[in-house]
Amino acid sequence: MLLSVKSVCKNFGQVSAVKSITFDVDNSAMIGIIGRSGAGKSTFLRMINRLVDASSGRILFKGQNVLSLRGAEMRRWQANCAMIFQQFNLVPRMDVVSNVLHGTLNQRSTLSTAFNLFPRADIQRAISLLERLGIEEQATKRVEALSGGQQQRVAIARALMQDPEMVLADEPIASLDPMNAQLVMDALRRIHDEDGRTVICNLHTLDTARRYCDRVIGMSHGEVVFDGPPDQLTTAVAREIYGADESFSEHSTSTEIREHAEHESVSQVQPKTPAQPVTTVN
Ligand SMILES: Nc1ncnc2c1ncn2[C@@H]1O[C@H](COP(=O)(O)OP(=O)(O)OP(=O)(O)O)[C@@H](O)[C@H]1O
Ligand SMILES: [Mg+2]
């Protein structure tokens, strides 16, 4: 068993954000979590990554309860289930390569961090990850000069720098236009298909979950109300997940990702001053 979530709950004072979630992931998978605003999707992902402490329950990864990890062990786990956020959480004024290299931060000494010293092998790895994600031409630019879709792919590269077994993405495309949304979802699908990493992705639209995920978990009021393959996600089930009445239409949750992405527009914005250079050590 890869991941086993057992009766996990989270209360914020009087609010039950997550009420006893249980499910298993046997093998590497790409899983989408859907549900209306406030259903508990972010709280749940953040509990896996230990950004939020669960009130009760257990989360076992390969048999080990990750909710009881402390200190260095907990940080190792956090690197092993790298998170990607809607707002990218990059350092905007820093260049792209340095942002990606920050994925190795918890493996480096304070001194090398202070002087921005990175091993040459790490820099080469960062650049090959950027190549893989189709954004190597942006490597020396400041992050703030990139489009949202490019920034999210930088965040994916930073996550991959940690070589995680799982990638947790909290609404990774909610701030992106349809073309960039497609590029980012394609990238997440590839890191599952090609690397065998498990991807768990909170999504705000049904059609994206249907199109990209092998398994969809529907949450409502902190509970799992659907867990199955996308083809079982009928309109009636979707209505239950979203708590909508007869007027519910799929279209209202749709971003309508286009069939064919157009050529990616490369931002021409130049940084006012050169980005901070990366220094190598051997
Ligand atoms: N830090 C917090 N303190 C208090 N209440 C919180 C906190 N974080 C979340 N909640 C509450 O927990 C519930 C679940 O929130 P959560 O952010 O997990 O939902 P979500 O499904 O991710 O929603 P959205 O689609 O809007 O991102 C909500 O009622 C929310 O108000
Ligand atoms: Mg959320």
From TrEMBL:
Gene transcribed to yield this protein: phnC
Gene Ontology CC terms: plasma membrane
Organism of origin: Spiribacter salilacus
Gene Ontology MF term list: ABC-type phosphonate transporter activity; ATP binding; ATP hydrolysis activity
Superkingdom as given in the UniProt entry: Bacteria
Domain ABC transporter: 3-246
Subcellular location: Cell inner membrane
Protein's UniProt name: Phosphonate ABC transporter ATP-binding protein
Compositionally biased region (Polar residues): 266-282
UniProt cross-references to PROSITE patterns, sorted A to Z: ABC_TRANSPORTER_1, ABC_TRANSPORTER_2
Region of interest (Disordered), residue spans: 247-282
Positions with biased composition (Basic and acidic residues): 256-265
Keywords tagged on the record: ATP-binding, Cell membrane, Membrane, Nucleotide-binding, Translocase, Transport
A Pfam family of this chain: ABC_tran
Membrane topology value: Peripheral membrane protein
